[in-house]
Amino acid sequence: MLIRGRCHCGNIAFSLTWDPDPAEIPARACTCSFCMKHGGVWTSNPRGALRVEIGEVKGVSRYAFGTKTAEFHICARCGVVPVVTSRIDERVYAVVSVNAFENVDATLLRRAPIGFDAEEKESRLARRKRNWIADVSFA
Q: Tens digit of pLDDT per residue, the chain (139 long)?
C-alpha cells in the first residue's frame, strides 16, 4: 500500500510504502505535552520506505525538546507536523502523522494512547530503531 500524506498547505509531503498491505494501522496518540497540544498521532512500519518531499525548505521549522533525540518537522506556513525524525547511529528513522494521511480509510486506523515520559534515553533510541521507519529519504 502506498500511503500519501502532507501538511495542510502541501509544503511538506510524504509517501510511505507499507508492505504488505495492512489489515490495520497502529495509530499511537502520544501523551507528551507537545503531541497533546498538536494532536500528534503517529505510525510507522519498520519494513516500510518513507520519501519526504519539501517544497520550500525555508518554510520548514524543526523542533526538538526533552532528550533532543527527535526532530518534529513543522510547516512554518500552516503549522502542521507531518513527520518526526530521529538520527541514531548515523541513520535517520521516522514516524508519520496519521492526521496528515490523504488516501487511507479511517477504519484502518487503530488509535491508542501511549506515553514515553518515563522511558530512559537509551531504551527510547532502541525502541525507535526497532519500530520506526528505517528507510527514509528527503527530496
A: 999 999 999 999 999 999 999 999 999 998 988 989 999 999 999 999 999 999 999 999 999 998 899 999 999 999 999 999 999 999 999 999 999 999 999 999 999 988 777 778 899 999 999 999 999 999 9
Joined grid coordinates for residue 80: 502542521
Domain span at residue 43 reads: 2-138
Please count the structural domains in the chain.
1
30 DSSP β-pair partners: 114
CATH of the domain at 122: 2.170.150.70
